[in-house]
Structure to design on (776 residues):
């Protein structure tokens, strides 16, 4: 049977015996191929038999075709750039704010006591609920989108930064002090490096969250961007366009995550030397 | 039931490298015998125990229990682990009756058996507590009661007192000795402590450093109830220490 | 508690002060009083309970369906290497795509009715819960399995009496996070193509330029989320009494 047997569980736990490399590769690749094949078959079948408008279930090549068409007309890059720009600016602003305030709050109790209650009050409110408020205040332009991303990403990044600072083992600081470190040294050479893992995790969360929320703000009142492309497709049932733009978004989010992970690996080399 | 180990070897493969843990071990444990496995770190004594328990499969050779080959774990070989491994979501009583529940033993009988074994290990008053409320020594006693309540022919113990402080350790050794005089199980007991082995064992098997083989077997001819300060006791201790030290030195080379 | 009053106080000062000094258009900065007024009005005419009920119903059904699927599939995947290897590439492909990006697709496929919202919530919450549940099950301590096997447990026994109880705390955490995600996302889903629900109520606040309504809706959502979270945590603590040191016997 496919389920882990008792003797396998004795040696390897619930997860069962690890698969050999070639076998694992075979499973993964065949699964991907099956997925694409199924999708293509479904799409092709719908095109051929037309139980409903084939636009509702486009085959993979139709989706890619739609994307290429947009690229050819020069529109695709415009939308991608718009989304990336908003994400980049919004995330950076959110990160700068979160890190500065977080580092301050982590070290100075007074700052923490002032800021934390506000955060605790605002945190349970889904940022999406506040989006219309941004639009009312700042209008439908770039500023409201960027501002919204900043707002949404600020909280998790702030909280992880504060946590990163406050969880630092006090003995590390005492050790540094007994080696002659002054406050400036303590901050730069102990607190910052020690908090870095948590801070970077927060950044990764922030990147993911940026892509998460940009979509909805580009649905509501935008004339450009991948989110706009998706929502606009609703008007003429351009499902290939909607699927294609969604996949592109996924790709961008994946790339962003990958960037932070690469940064993590470089900067946190001390965690996994070899 | 007796344990028969023949030509047992076990090699671990990790990251493309092969590490032999056991090499050609032959051992017989007679019925009702208490045998200790002793040796330096990495000598394979826990691996040997795990194979007899059926948790690991040997690379070569086989283990027979009561004449039948071992193919996996089973209720005929109860195990007591170093980390107690009680089921945290069950009470003490729930833990002790676990094996009986699996067998479908009726509730009244289960209660009687649980009461008997909790009495035996001195924890009758704690039947409804959860493991998280118990001390290390108490947890280990529950583990022993749990294994015994299932009435296995063989009990396998993997450094069961290793996580306890020295005083608790000696108390539990006394208790185990007392229990064994009542229950007369076939026991295979892994330990680091020479003192412990001399106190508990009928025979002590000293193993070599990795890859593990049997270096020497000592038959402990001491009375049933042993005095840790008797000269004969100390004699065995020093003899075995000498042999073990040779192997320990090899580990640190 | 003091902090909460402080924040409320600050809000009151800023908003009433704004009225007095006329820094910003008064409508843009609603006062606590105005927000309460909207709350009272919508309670009185019964629209608020209806909106809240609609949103909660969508969350409950969508989350419920996803939870059942995530539990079944998660347990299965944890025990089966080939299934895990097969699902892995598909999940890696779908996971980076923000669920909200599929919302318009769900609207196209399922129309503007309840089905699209429920299906969307189900889709959004399924993957994170599935991954977390599979992870929780795989994390079960191997020595627990060994202990049970040496007491005579067969595979079914292991699953029923060891793996499930041992993984349960982690599973509940996964469900709690899934529910929080559902609440997070329902608002966005109700911004578009909905005629009821809290998200719709909030969007109305923008359409008809009543910021107080937006603030009220947002605060209410926050309150609801906190309440549910507290309830779930309390349930968790009761269920897992055996984790607490010194628990009453």
């Amino acid at each position: 049977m496919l389920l882990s047997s008792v003797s396998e569980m004795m040696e390897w736990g619930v997860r069962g015996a690890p698969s050999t490399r070639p076998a694992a590769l075979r499973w993964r690749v065949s699964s991907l191929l099956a997925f694409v094949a199924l999708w293509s078959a479904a799409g092709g079948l719908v095109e051929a038999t037309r139980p409903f408008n084939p636009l509702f279930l486009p085959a993979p090549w139709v989706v890619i075709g739609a994307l290429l068409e947009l690229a050819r007309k020069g529109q695709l890059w415009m939308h991608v750039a718009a989304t990336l720009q908003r994400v980049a600016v919004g995330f950076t602003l959110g990160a700068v704010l979160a890190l500065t305030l977080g580092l301050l709050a982590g070290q100075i109790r007074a700052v923490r006591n002032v800021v934390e209650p506000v955060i605790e009050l605002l945190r349970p409110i889904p940022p999406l609920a506040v989006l219309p408020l941004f639009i009312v205040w700042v209008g439908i332009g770039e500023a409201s989108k960027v501002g919204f991303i900043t707002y949404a990403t600020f909280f998790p990044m702030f909280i992880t930064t504060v946590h990163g600072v406050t969880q630092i083992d006090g003995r590390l600081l005492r050790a540094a002090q007994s080696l002659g470190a002054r406050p400036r040294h303590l901050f730069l050479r102990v607190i910052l490096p020690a908090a870095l893992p948590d801070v970077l995790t927060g950044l990764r969360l922030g990147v993911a969250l940026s892509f998460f929320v940009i979509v909805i703000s580009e649905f509501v009142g935008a004339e450009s961007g991948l989110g706009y492309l998706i929502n606009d497709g609703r008007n003429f049932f351009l499902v290939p366009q909607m699927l294609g733009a969604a996949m592109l978004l996924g790709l961008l989010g994946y790339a962003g995550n990958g960037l932070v992970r690469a940064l993590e690996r470089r900067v946190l080399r001390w965690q996994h030397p070899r | 039931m007796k344990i028969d180990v023949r030509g047992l070897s076990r090699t671990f493969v990790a990251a493309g490298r092969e590490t032999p843990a056991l090499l050609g071990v032959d051992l017989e444990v007679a019925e009702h015998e208490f045998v200790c496995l002793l040796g330096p770190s990495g000598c394979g004594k826990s691996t040997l125990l795990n194979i007899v328990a059926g948790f690991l499969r040997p690379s070569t050779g086989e283990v027979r229990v009561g004449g039948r080959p071992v193919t996996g774990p089973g209720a005929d070989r109860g195990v007591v682990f170093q980390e107690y491994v009680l089921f945290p979501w069950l009470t003490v009583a729930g833990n002790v009756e676990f094996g009986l529940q699996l067998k479908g033993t009726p509730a009244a009988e289960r209660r009687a058996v649980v009461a008997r074994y909790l009495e035996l290990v001195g924890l009758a008053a704690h039947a409804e507590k959860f493991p998280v409320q118990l001390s290390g020594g108490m947890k280990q006693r529950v583990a022993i009661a749990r294994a015994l309540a299932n009435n296995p022919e063989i009990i396998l113990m993997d450094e069961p007192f290793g996580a306890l402080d020295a005083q608790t350790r000696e108390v539990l050794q006394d208790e185990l000795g007392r229990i064994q005089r009542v229950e007369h199980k076939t026991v295979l007991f892994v330990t680091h402590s020479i003192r412990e082995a001399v106190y508990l064992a009928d025979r002590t098997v000293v193993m070599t450093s990795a890859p593990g083989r049997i270096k020497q077997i000592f038959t402990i001819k001491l009375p049933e109830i042993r005095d840790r300060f008797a000269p004969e006791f100390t004699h065995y201790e020093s003899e075995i220490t000498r042999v073990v030290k040779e192997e320990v030195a090899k580990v640190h080379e | 508690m003091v902090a909460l009053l402080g924040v409320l106080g600050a809000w009151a000062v800023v908003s009433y002060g704004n009225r007095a000094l006329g820094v910003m258009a008064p409508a843009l900065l609603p006062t606590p009083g105005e927000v309460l007024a909207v709350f009272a009005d919508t309670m009185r005419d019964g629209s608020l309970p209806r909106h809240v009920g609609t949103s909660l119903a969508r969350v409950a059904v969508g989350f419920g369906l996803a939870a059942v699927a995530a539990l079944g599939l998660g347990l299965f995947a944890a025990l089966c290497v080939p299934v895990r290897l097969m699902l892995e590439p598909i999940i890696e492909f779908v996971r980076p795509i923000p669920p909200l990006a599929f919302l318009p697709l769900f609207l196209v496929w399922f129309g503007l009715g309840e089905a699209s919202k429920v299906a969307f919530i189900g889709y959004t919450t399924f993957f994170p819960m599935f991954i977390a549940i599979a992870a929780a099950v795989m994390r079960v301590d191997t020595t627990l399995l060994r202990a049970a096997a040496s007491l005579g447990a067969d595979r079914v026994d292991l699953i029923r009496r060891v793996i499930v109880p041992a993984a349960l705390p982690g599973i509940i955490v996964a469900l709690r996070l899934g529910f929080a995600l559902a609440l997070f996302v329902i608002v966005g889903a109700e911004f578009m193509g909905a005629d009821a629900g809290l998200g719709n109520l909030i969007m109305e606040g923008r359409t008809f330029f009543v910021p107080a309504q937006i603030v009220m809706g947002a605060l209410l959502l926050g309150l609801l989320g906190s309440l549910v979270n507290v309830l779930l945590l309390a349930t968790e603590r009761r269920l897992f009494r055996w984790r607490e040191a010194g628990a009453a016997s």
Remarks:
- The mean pLDDT of chain C is 87.
- Residues 198 and 220 of chain C are 9 Å apart (CA to CA).
